[in-house]
Amino acid sequence: MISLLLATEPIGGHPGLAENLAYQTVGILVVMTSLGILWLCVAALGRLLALRPAPSTGAAAVIGPLPVGNDDLTPELLVVLHATVYEMLGPGHEIHSIRLVNPFVQAWSVEGRRQIFQSHHTR
To answer: Are both 75 and 46 inside the same structural domain?
Structure first.
């Protein structure tokens, strides 16, 4: 135990095997203690959040009519999309149309390039 307490002092010169092991042991204890405290905090936060009441499940009945005309989307997926809009934006928002995007079109990368090129100014 005394060697662990001495391991918190700076090493001078060339340390021996025992001093190196003492420093490594203290380092591992500090890391494991920190991880244990973080684990306890996350577990306590999880239990605290589990006490919240569950959101209502009747959102799909209030959100309005489902868009029709798209045979690629199942009714279950449409209900999930409507429930998501209701939960994220609240009542009064509706989905008016749904378009499936071609997965081979890289719209996000094109938009990112456009913003980068637009930020450059010629002199």
So the answer is: no
